[in-house]
């Protein structure tokens, strides 16, 4: 799991691209993985006041990351919402691991959604 704010995401896909791609490839080998971006998707797709990077290329890199390595991402409006998503995700991962490990199977009830 990795969390990025917008400027870090843009920097990672531009100036630090080889290192970031390497981390994403490693991340794709784990059974549970998630990239949390603490910026709305509309902001990821808009011009950046801090960089000349093309927003379309950043978004296409994210889509390629999902399609090519099965590394999902979620965008949140604030750092605090990002923390909540991470905590909820980790809870669900732990819950399903516990259920499977204790012979209860992996399934969702109507009340789980």
Protein architecture, described:
With 113 residues, the protein is mainly alpha-helical. The protein has a single domain, classed as Rossmann fold, CATH 3.40.50.10130. It has helices at 6-13, 17-27, 41-44, 55-69, 79-101, and strands spanning 2-4, 35-37, 73-75. It has a 3-stranded parallel β-sheet. The model has no long low-confidence stretch (mean pLDDT 93).
- Helix proportion of residues, in percent? 40-55%
CATH-defined topology? Rossmann fold
- Average residue-wise pLDDT: 93
Give the count of structural domains: 1
Total of DSSP H or I helical runs spanning 4+ residues: 5
Order of neighbouring strands in the sheet with most strands: 1-2-3
- The first-to-last residue Cα distance is 22 Å
* Low confidence ranges: none
The CATH class assignment is Alpha Beta
Q: What is the N-to-C succession of helices and strands? A: EHHEHHEH
Strand content is 5-15%
